[in-house]
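Here is one chain, start to finish.
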Amino acid sequence: MSTQRTAVVTGAARGIGKAIALRFAHDGHKVAVVDLDEAACQGTVDEITAAGGQAIAVGADVSDEEQVAAAFERIAAELGAPTILVNNAGIIRDNMLFKMTTDDWDAVMGVHLRGAFLMTKACQAFMTQEKYGRIVNLSSTSALGNRGQANYSAAKAGMQGLTKTLAIELGKFGVTANAIAPGFIQTEMTASTAERLGVPFDDFIKYSAEQIPVQRVGQPEDIAATAAFLCSEEAGFVSGQVIYVAGGPKD
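Its structure:
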């Protein structure tokens, strides 16, 4: 059996983050369920504890340095030194470039890139001390470019560059860093995209599935399974990689 560790998952109140938190708990880890609204995390925590796992809800704005510091202080005190980190927190502020506001740009960069930077900087202090760490950053197939997502695409491409640099800098401390780039995953976020496009979600899913080689859209559990592998002890020789979990090849 693998060693029980403390895992931190951001944006874990719902969607992909929730699925990853549940999977880590199933794998025997203690989980800090982090999201902007602490109350929103309680559902994930309750599911984990009902199944016999250990988890706490932590409310924090990942783009706020003081809140991140306070979050890690609490996580370390209540669950132990965190050595697994998944930077999943994300928002979308989609618009065509000529209509995109500076606030739309800054908000998306703040949560994705500044958030991942602050969370990782705080967490690596524990990882390097423990001489063990697993970092997974959530990128996206949008990193390759996507209409109406100049901000999101740039942020998700940035996550890949950050990941590769973390792998280089932290490898000697027994820390790996990898990125997962999901394709179409059925979540509340993709539902809001369908709404923005004025398309019924069921139709959006059906159309999207037809474009995917495996002929289905992804589920949050597909991403959780990949994160579970990358954060396992046996994945210690996998670092600096970007894994497209998209039901087919991506360039």
